[in-house]
Amino acid sequence: MTKVSVVVYGADVVCASCVNAPTSQDTYDWLKALLERKYPDINFEYTYIDFEKDTENLTDHDQQFIEQIENDELFYPLVTMNDMYVADGYVQLKPITRFIDEHFVAQ
Length: 107
Known about the structure:
Strand order of the largest sheet: 2-1-3-4
Helix content: 25-40%
Radius of gyration: 13 Å
Oligomer: single chain
Largest sheet: 4 strands, mixed
Structural class: alpha+beta
Low-confidence stretches: none
Number of strands: 4
């Protein structure tokens, strides 16, 4: 079974550039429910990182993504899978499923 590490970087406050978008925590909860149903043959492992509060025990990779958010190069919530960028800001279903289909579903 394929294993995929899903990390959502977010904050309590909604991204100022993402008007009417769900909160980071809502996006995290939505992804957990969606991915389990849509891809039952993939073993997803989920992590939520509040980049304003969770500052200890982060990998260099996590720090790089957080730095990009803080420098306004990326928006939050930011979704990565196996340390690869997937989507940021107003996260939509189609780019998520396309990424999974291209990288993790056996062709």
